[in-house]
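// run 5 | inverse folding | seed 20
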């Protein structure tokens, strides 16, 4: 018969050879490659972090250096202005000469917006405006001209002997000067509107006799920050640069809208001359380099910073890692495909052998596998076919030998069992013949006695023939719904005479109206056989008890005797084997027949317990119908 070919072993089963082969390839190639990729990616990221940190700090320090130069230049120029102011306050020169000296200095009209000289009381002595830097009209400029600087914070600090006057000067951060703007609180993003400068005391006759303020346009500082950001953007497009005060307030930024903001950097980042840190901005992680402005005679509390988005800073390492990851995925996919193809080519012949083995094990000894493939696979198929042919021949020889052995064993058993009743029958016939020849007066008595002997032995022969026929045949069973109490009553009636003879045999039925689906006569013979064996084991002085009950969905019949029991483990294991018996008489087929009948009814028969004085044989049968509980004895 033709059989459908079974599917190739599913490659996703973890126990299959295909999966193991693919996993071996991945573990030996892809996994080390993946480890190398991640190791290389981490090493590259670490190196790039150091490189980026160095770039950021270097750019910040370069911007800081340019700003320091700018501030030192301002400090030097203002020192010259202060010298002229001291001469004016000592009346060595007039205020007009002081004004001319400032206006005609080379740097004044290039970057300075305003120079104000005031006495110790705060009264403005001279105001010098730069026409190049001042965008006000003459009328507006005159309207803003201050008469006094007494209310200015820098003035109060310079005049206070215990304050900043002792330090020599005060730096003014980016601000809207009241000398140049009517509204110093207005919101502006234009660097040209803002000023920064230097206020310092002016000594007259050995004491502070006045103050001078020099203001410069903030444009120059902003240009330095823009140049720093632009040079960094050539490498990183998201780069920004800024200048902030000591408390983190932004006073210059490459993005004008950030004027006046607070930097996202913590205060700890601003400690020291140079530092690197990270911060969150617009849901993105940024990396920054900070340089502290440390030059100028009186250090100014500014910090210069540059920053860029980390996604931009580490784009190269991310692209490299992504490339390695994709290469790993592609290599792994190639290995998986190659592993599946190779394993299928190897396993397909093996699978055909497995299928052929299963069919041969099922009895199809004519089945063969194709002898195709290269070298070893073809040899394997050829060897298997030769083995299958040899197995078929050996099985046929074994079957013939088993048949002959079975017939020989059957003949031996039958001969042995028949010889036992034939011996007393032969002796009885010989006695009758001799008594008849000798006219023995006891002939009628001998005929009666010996006739009974022959009848008994004939019945024994009939039982032997019945046992062998029942064991060897396959009877047609007539199943029916039988109440357990009726089956139990039949067995009790079969032993009524035995009970009346004085033997201690009792019955206890607790099955109620439970029913079983059985062949009534066959199941009756099972119980008769087991009870008869119990009576023979108990002996004339012993007792046997037969109990029937319901346990879950099964009827249970237990036959209990107080005989010597079966204590030998080997005997207990072989108790239900055909032709095995512990008695001198009997075929050894009784319990074997019982097991065959009970198992044919989907039941179980077993030796539940056997100790001296207590042996229990149990029969379990599946129930049908309703289960009730009654008790009879």
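// decoded
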């Amino acid at each position: 018969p033709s059989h459908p070919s079974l599917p190739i072993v599913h490659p996703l089963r973890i126990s299959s050879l295909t999966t193991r082969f693919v996993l071996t390839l991945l573990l030996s190639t892809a996994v080390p490659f993946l480890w190398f990729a991640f190791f290389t990616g981490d090493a590259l990221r670490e190196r790039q972090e150091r490189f980026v940190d160095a770039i950021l700090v270097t750019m910040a320090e370069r911007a800081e250096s340019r700003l320091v130069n700018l501030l030192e230049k301002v400090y030097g120029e203002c020192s010259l202005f202060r010298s002229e102011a001291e001469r004016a306050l000592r009346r060595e020169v007039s205020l007009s000469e002081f004004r001319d000296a400032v206006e005609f200095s080379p740097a004044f009209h290039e970057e300075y917006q305003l120079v104000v000289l005031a006495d110790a009381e705060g009264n403005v002595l001279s105001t010098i405006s730069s026409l190049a830097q001042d965008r006000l009209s003459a009328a507006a400029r005159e309207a803003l001209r201050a008469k006094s600087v007494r209310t200015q914070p820098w003035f109060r600090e310079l005049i206070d002997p215990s304050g900043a006057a002792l330090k020599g000067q005060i730096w003014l951060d980016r601000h809207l000067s009241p000398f140049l703007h009517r509204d110093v609180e207005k919101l502006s993003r234009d660097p040209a509107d803002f000023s920064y400068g230097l206020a310092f005391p002016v000594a007259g006759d050995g004491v502070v006799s006045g103050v001078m303020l020099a203001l410069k346009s903030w444009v120059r500082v902003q240009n330095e920050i823009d140049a720093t950001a632009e040079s960094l953007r050539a490498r990183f497009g998201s780069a920004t640069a800024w200048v902030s005060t000591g408390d983190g307030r932004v006073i210059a930024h490459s993005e004008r809208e950030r004027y006046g903001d607070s930097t996202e950097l913590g205060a700890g980042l601003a400690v020291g001359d140079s530092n690197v840190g990270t911060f969150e901005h617009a849901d993105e992680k940024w990396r920054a380099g900070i340089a502290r402005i440390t030059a100028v005679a009186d250090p100014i509390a500014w910090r210069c910073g540059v920053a860029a988005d980390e996604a931009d800073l580490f784009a190269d390492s991310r692209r490299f890692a992504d490339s390695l990851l994709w290469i790993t995925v592609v290599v792994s996919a190639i290995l998986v495909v190659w592993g599946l193809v190779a394993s299928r080519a190897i396993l397909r012949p093996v699978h055909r052998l497995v299928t052929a083995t299963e069919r041969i094990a099922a009895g199809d000894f004519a089945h063969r596998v194709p002898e195709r493939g290269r070298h070893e696979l073809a040899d394997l198929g050829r060897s298997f076919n030769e083995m299958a042919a040899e197995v078929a021949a050996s099985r046929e020889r074994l079957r013939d030998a088993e048949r002959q052995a079975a017939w020989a064993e059957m003949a031996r058993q039958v001969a042995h069992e028949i010889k036992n009743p034939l011996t007393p029958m032969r002796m009885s016939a010989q006695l009758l013949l001799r008594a008849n020849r000798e006219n023995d007066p006891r002939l009628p008595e001998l005929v009666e006695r010996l006739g009974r002997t022959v009848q008994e032995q004939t019945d024994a022969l009939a039982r032997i023939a019945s046992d062998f026929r029942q064991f060897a045949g396959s009877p047609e069973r007539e199943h029916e719904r039988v109440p357990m109490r009726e089956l139990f009553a039949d067995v009790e009636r079969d032993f009524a005479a035995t009970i009346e003879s004085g033997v201690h045999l009792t019955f206890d039925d607790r099955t109620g109206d439970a029913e079983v689906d059985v062949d009534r006569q066959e199941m009756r013979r099972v119980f008769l056989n087991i009870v008869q064996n119990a009576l023979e084991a108990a002996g004339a002085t012993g007792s046997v008890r037969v109990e029937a009950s319901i346990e879950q969905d099964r009827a249970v019949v237990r036959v209990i005797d107080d005989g010597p029991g079966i204590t030998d483990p080997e005997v207990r294991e072989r108790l239900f084997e055909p032709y095995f018996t512990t008695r001198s008489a009997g075929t050894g087929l009784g319990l074997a027949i019982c097991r065959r009948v009970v198992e044919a009814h989907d039941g179980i028969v077993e030796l539940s317990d056997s100790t001296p004085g207590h042996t229990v044989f149990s029969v379990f049968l599946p129930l049908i119908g309703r289960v009730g509980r009654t008790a009879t004895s």
